[in-house]
Design goal:
The chain is of the alpha/beta class. It is built from 20 helices and 21 strands. A hairpin with a 2-residue loop joins strand 18 and strand 19. Helix 3 crosses helix 4 and helix 14 packs antiparallel against helix 15. It is elongated.
């Protein structure tokens, strides 16, 4: 029977045929009993088969109310895939939108395309009633593959599990279908019609009355309007007419009742698992959805954004506080001299100290630490507009341009400058440190990113050197700040380079205004007198 119904489905766009594997039954989605009767007659005429349908039910859907990160991991022995998806709600009627913002440095483009294919190939089910999800944007934010053990099917499993894990973590909302309706009848029945609409939870405008006829227009839940056509015919004695058209999906009025009635248990749905599979000591083990983020291999994408936003907010809120001398005296009085008597005793001590001769104290000079500026290379490239545009054409050109800019900048500052680039994807690559004119260029070893190298350098050398890190990576900023190092964002570094270049330019312009430079101009003291006497002797 299913192939025959599929044939009719292709001919009639309003007909939707489903095969439910769990119940082993065919389900047909359509609007109202009239269309149902038409379908029965069509099947009888076309295929010579008399059929009947069971009791119908409303098609519910689900969406989410908040933004979450779903994580799926699939790693049985000799398999590996991890997927991070951002799920965020859309406006009603938005459907499902799929996108990717994952860096190709993190996950190759072919794997990203495969993940998007898996997202689109399946009707994903919600966790409240098992209904299809809608009005959600799903964005691939991060992913990880293994050079040897990853296969295409691994990302299918990780993707499905990431969607379900995100739905389990999010605040889900049950949706029900609504009809736009127009109800026409003799005006003597308008009171009954208004009472029915209020009982159904309909949203309608004031009745339109013209002569002996009245009309109501608005929208109402499909569940309440399902059999209302028969009621209208009955109480208007066949003089009433009800016109219905599909309006869309809106939050369900009696969601709790429907959820209990459906009896769906998301964690028992074996066809749509929300747990993940990890590997330990050569064997795979399952981790429940609410524990997956404690085992995942990649950092949380949303967590990084939240920490970066929090750090930025702290910086904006931070202000310098200046205290006057009177406020300082008051603080000293309330703290240092709090247990040494009252205010008069403190003034007396202060007067005695003022009359005593000053004593010379010997201080040890504080040894100034060497300065290191560490620059996260690719982070800066993609943060500066000029270099980002160049990188889209030629990444090597953008890298070389950044090295030249920083080399010129280093000429006007002291200390040491190191640029760190990722080379973790190069198989067998070892850490490589090259000297380019007056700066150092570092390429990390295999499986080590630039931020990992910088964090390790900061951890090992923070006490010995004064370290400043230039990056706009939110998570890296938090870690570096925890090591006691200074931070410079990509925009701040660019401003500093422009300022240094301007100062250098102005300095040489000032020298150029004086004309030629003579030895006497630079000489001082006895040397100046001797040079002057020689010049006067030559003239004589």
């Amino acid at each position: 029977m299913l192939p025959k119904l599929r044939q009719l489905e292709e001919e009639e766009p309003l007909l939707h045929v489903l095969w439910q594997e769990e119940q082993k039954e065919i389900q047909v989605e359509l609007m109202g009993r009239v269309q149902l009767e038409v379908l029965k007659r069509l099947i009888s005429d076309r295929f010579g088969i008399e059929i009947s349908f069971g009791e119908g039910s409303i098609i519910y859907k689900e969406t989410i109310a908040d933004k979450v990160e779903g994580v799926g991991h699939f790693e049985p022995l000799r398999h590996y895939a991890e997927v991070h998806l951002i799920l965020e709600p859309l406006e009603p009627g938005g459907g499902l939108i799929f996108d990717s913002v994952c860096s190709e440095d993190l996950l190759d483009k072919n794997w990203q395309r495969l993940i998007l294919t898996h997202l689109m190939e399946k009707e994903h089910r919600g966790v409240l009633t098992g209904s299809a999800i809608t009005d959600i944007k799903i964005t691939l934010a991060a992913g990880k593959a293994h050079l040897k053990h990853t296969e295409g099917g691994d990302f299918r499993q990780a993707t499905y599990r990431a969607v379900r894990q995100g739905l389990m973590e999010a605040e889900s909302v049950l949706l029900e279908p609504y009809y736009d309706f127009r109800l026409e009848m003799p005006k003597v029945f308008i009171g009954r019609a208004i009472a029915d609409m209020e009982r159904m939870g309909a949203d309608f405008s004031s009745p339109e009355i013209e002569g002996e006829t009245a009309a109501l227009t608005g929208k109402a839940p499909a569940a309440a309007m399902a059999n209302y056509q028969q009621e209208v015919i009955a109480y208007t004695k066949g003089e009433g007419r009800l016109f219905l058209s599909f309006h869309g999906y809106e939050p369900c009025r009696n969601a709790k009742e429907v959820i209990v009635q459906k009896g769906y248990e998301a964690e028992r749905d074996l066809e749509n698992p929300s747990d993940s599979v990890f590997c330990s000591h050569g064997a795979g083990f399952s981790v429940e959805w609410n524990q997956v983020k404690a085992y995942m291999h990649l950092e949380s994408v949303l967590k990084e954004k939240k920490e970066a936003a929090s750090l930025k907010e702290d910086v904006l809120k931070k202000k310098e506080i200046w205290l006057g001398t009177e406020e300082v005296d008051e603080i000293i009085e309330k703290t240092f001299y709090a247990n040494r008597g009252n205010k008069e005793n403190w003034k007396r001590r202060k007067k005695i100290q003022e009359n005593q001769p000053s004593q010379t104290r010997n201080y040890r000079p504080v040894k100034k630490k060497e300065e290191y500026l560490l620059v996260d290379g690719y982070n800066i490239i993609f943060a500066w507009k000029e270099l980002k545009e160049l990188a889209q054409v030629n990444i090597d050109g953008a890298r070389g341009r950044l090295i030249d800019i920083l080399s010129n900048y280093q000429g006007s500052r002291g200390g040491h400058l190191m640029i760190v680039f990722d080379a973790y994807r190069v198989q067998g690559h070892r850490t490589e440190v090259l000297q380019y004119h007056n700066i150092f260029v570092v390429y990390t070893k295999e499986a080590e990113t630039a931020d990992q190298y910088i964090e390790k350098f900061a951890h090992e050398n923070a006490k010995e050197y004064q370290i400043t890190v230039a990056t706009s990576d939110g998570l890296e900023q938090v870690i570096i700040r925890g090591q006691g190092c200074s931070l410079v964002s990509a925009s701040e570094l660019l401003e500093e380079i422009i300022r240094a270049k301007k100062e250098l330019h102005e300095r040489y312009l000032e020298r150029g205004d004086k004309g030629k430079s003579f030895l006497l101009d630079a000489a001082v003291g006895d040397a100046a007198e001797k040079i002057q006497s020689i010049r006067e002797g030559d003239k004589g």
